[in-house]
Amino acid sequence: MKAVKLYEPGNLKVEEVEIPTIKEDEVLLKVKAVGICGSDIPRALVKGAYYEGLTLGHEFSGEIVECGTDIKDWKIGDRVTVAPLVPCRECNSCKEGRFSLCASYNYYGSRTDGAMAHYIKVNHQNLLKLPDNISYEAGAMVDPAANAVHGLWRGNLAAGDTAVVIGLGAIGLFAVQFAREMGADKVIAIDIFDEKLEIAKELGADVIINSMQEKPEEVLSNLQIDMVLETSGSPIAQNQAVLIAGKVARVVYLGISNRELTLSANAVNRLMRNEIHLNGSWNSFSNPFPGKEWTYSIQLMAEGRINTHSIVSHRYKLSETPNVFEKIKNKEIVFNKILILPEREE
Ligand SMILES: [Zn+2]
Ligand SMILES: [Zn+2]
Q1: Which architecture, in CATH terms, is 2-141+308-340?
Q2: How far is the CA of 185 from the centre of ligand 2 (A)?
Q3: Strand partners, 54
């Protein structure tokens, strides 16, 4: 089979490798679709792999083609998506059901081989069944959907709230839809690309704001904003998130930044005077593993209430993956979810 392996930053190679051998508690999956995550981009281009020769890919779906000897609840032919975290289940965070905060975890596509390959071996505890009416492409997007749900729950989004989503990548576009499903009265979407704002509108955003053209804190100055989910990771947007937050609002930082953040004097003043809650959000897991974020996302997708199709911007063959990262690096494409489809003819 072929696999996309990451060596030093920027050096991705498609290589011929052995099909993985499964252990008694694992299944072998034929990978049907795998997404490029925002976190894969710095991993592939800047930070490098956890070990040289790592196979990337943690957002994926597939069909079970082989089951380990201990497997009872799964069979060949089952259609599944996979929670990429393998928690230790022994540390205090795991015992409290906060698996995202596990002290000693494994992770498909980051700490162990992922799904940018024709096959992957996966522990049975990470499998979730895909109902027949969820496509494999949608199945590969349950991970970003569950991240969006986790972020909204970290902000205690409640029915009747006015919610703002900043950053309209896949997680942001899912958050716009889930906020509406959770009963938000009004959903406002902010980004710097008109293409993404148009998709947010199509997916149910009531107000769209291009923050390159208008200042969100001016446009929204007369509205009580109850919750802000910041998914871009941009320090400018993180500051704006506080500047637009209303009284006792909840601001959630979800987008990975790795940069310093300076809050403006106005933002600090507002944080205090409005008694704003500022929360972090990390990953998508809760108790029982992998969590309600995952089952809720699958349920709403199966009910046809969440659109995944409009979030996919590009589809590529496995062999094209290194070239795709090159295009991202050179800013040659404006993209949302990029899917790699390993079954496509080479
Ligand atoms: Zn991801
Ligand atoms: Zn743990």
Answers
A1: Alpha-Beta Complex (3.90)
A2: 37
A3: 6
